[in-house]
Amino acid sequence: MSALLEVDDLRVAYGKVEAVKGISFTVEEGEAVTLIGTNGAGKTTTLHTLSGLLRPAGGSVRFRGEDLAGVPAHRVVALGLAHCPEGRHIFPSLTVEENLFLGAYLRKDAPGIADDLERAYTLFERLRERRAQAAGTLSGGEQQMLAMGRALMCRPALLMLDEPSMGLSPIMMRKIMDTVAELRRTGTTILLVEQNARAALALADRAYVMETGRIVLEGTGTELARAESVRKAYLGED
Amino acid sequence: MTATELTQLLADGLILGSMYGLIAVGYTMVYGILQIINFAHGEIYMLGGFGALFVYAWVPGLRAIPLWAALPVLLVVAVAVSVAAATGAERFAYRPLRGAPRLAPLISAIGLSLFLQQVVFNFFTLPGSSMGVTAPVPFPQFETAPLDLAGVQVSVAGLLTLALAAFGMVALTWFVRRTRTGRAMQATAQDPATARLMGIDTDRIIVIAFAIGAALAAVACVTQGLRLGTVSYNMGFITGLKGFTAAVLGGIGNIQGAMAGGVVLGLAESLASGALPHIDALAMFSGSVWKDVWAFVILIVVLLIRPQGLFGERVADRA
């Protein structure tokens, strides 16, 4: 039985600069896995490569047993890999509801889409209130909700979240992380990239620590939260 | 100058301006998505007119029936020729340069523009001449007398221009706002990378944007041919420049703004040639020879006051 996502010796370069220097990791069905690490460790680059926005310089990515080499970004989504990008990237002059419908762009099953729209609104009641509003007028936290709701609209087999708590107030950050935990409980497979290592480790089944393009440590969320090096470097403890 | 004369100038300006608007939409849509100016758009426009002229000259049946009955065929062929040229240009002159410095597609556009002009110049030779046609080529015309609306004369071709421009804008607005592909187009304009994450094939959206702009330009060229009675291989240069001006005037990237910019430009030209002679101090700067000067004066003044164009705020909310 192979994993849902298998990354093997993945290397990604911007010109001559290698940002990801041969990393391997897996995500099993139903798991929440987190990649933590400082700025510039290569976490976002990794996600961009998985979703097809960047081309790898080497190594392989297999998703549901299928090799993603050469698959363009707009086809990767069709395979069930959703990417909720860092910095939200909602479509500002479209309404909240239009943004959500774009998440289901490739789906044809109108009743299923309506169900998932309802699910997104149940998950984030605030979005329901603002459904007809231009997405650019939302607060940062609301935009994050919208970006997550939009990513869920394609009924992903794997949801990749890039820095969902970045730049949010502590209350909003908790709300977002609670929602991630809830999604995980209800069976969504999640690959989470976070700088807020404490929150990420608390909800992840397994975690990988990245440093300058390499995975330097891996283990279960609780193991890593207890590891001395992680506590010093990422949890701000002495 | 009487009220009727003024109304006449406004009517003429509105007709001219709605034709500029149809061209301007093509510049604005391509810019909105790719942030490049398709400077070959004037030639895409010109090719539409020649496409229509070509079927009219070579299919004898078309000349045997009244022009209004042949018109749908002329429009369809014009649109087909322009769309083919524009999508070909996208594929071979612009797509290979995606990601290149911004000057590269601009140079490519200028080259393409000269290439298309010369192809048409060499292709349409007049009988007895081995050279291309430098003189304007006659275009079929309605023989119906202009309509008299309370003293204001409006030609059938003029009315047709207004009707086609209005229909084109309503249809385009509906398409962009209400259809799935239209929303994908808006998404691509606002954030192309994220649009791809939604599963939108942005290359296909870009081709559609080029095609829509070309179709509207082809319609504009047919109406221009019908109104003036001629088309020429280099007609796309100055008219294309006017369409571009209209797009900038309205706020580049904004579709409705492009049409509004076209109308403003058309009215300005019409008033400069017809109304200024009645103002003593400005009379020497008036008449049709000065109309282009005034058109670009308007552009400069508007851009000094509102650099984003008249309706340009929509571009500002690009993330």
From TrEMBL, chain A:
<comment type="similarity">
    <text>Belongs to the ABC transporter superfamily.</text>
</comment>
<keyword id="KW-0029">Amino-acid transport</keyword>
<dbReference type="InterPro" id="IPR017871">
    <property type="entry name" value="ABC_transporter-like_CS"/>
</dbReference>
<dbReference type="InterPro" id="IPR003593">
    <property type="entry name" value="AAA+_ATPase"/>
</dbReference>
<feature type="domain" description="ABC transporter">
    <location>
        <begin position="5"/>
        <end position="237"/>
    </location>
</feature>
<keyword id="KW-0067">ATP-binding</keyword>
<dbReference type="GO" id="GO:0016887">
    <property type="term" value="F:ATP hydrolysis activity"/>
</dbReference>
<protein>
    <submittedName>
        <fullName>ABC transporter ATP-binding protein</fullName>
    </submittedName>
</protein>
<dbReference type="InterPro" id="IPR030660">
    <property type="entry name" value="ABC_branched_ATPase_LivF/BraG"/>
</dbReference>
<dbReference type="InterPro" id="IPR027417">
    <property type="entry name" value="P-loop_NTPase"/>
</dbReference>
<dbReference type="InterPro" id="IPR003439">
    <property type="entry name" value="ABC_transporter-like_ATP-bd"/>
</dbReference>
<dbReference type="InterPro" id="IPR052156">
    <property type="entry name" value="BCAA_Transport_ATP-bd_LivF"/>
</dbReference>
<dbReference type="GO" id="GO:0015658">
    <property type="term" value="F:branched-chain amino acid transmembrane transporter activity"/>
</dbReference>
<dbReference type="GO" id="GO:0015807">
    <property type="term" value="P:L-amino acid transport"/>
</dbReference>
<keyword id="KW-0547">Nucleotide-binding</keyword>
<keyword id="KW-0813">Transport</keyword>
<dbReference type="Pfam" id="PF00005">
    <property type="entry name" value="ABC_tran"/>
</dbReference>
<dbReference type="GO" id="GO:0005524">
    <property type="term" value="F:ATP binding"/>
</dbReference>
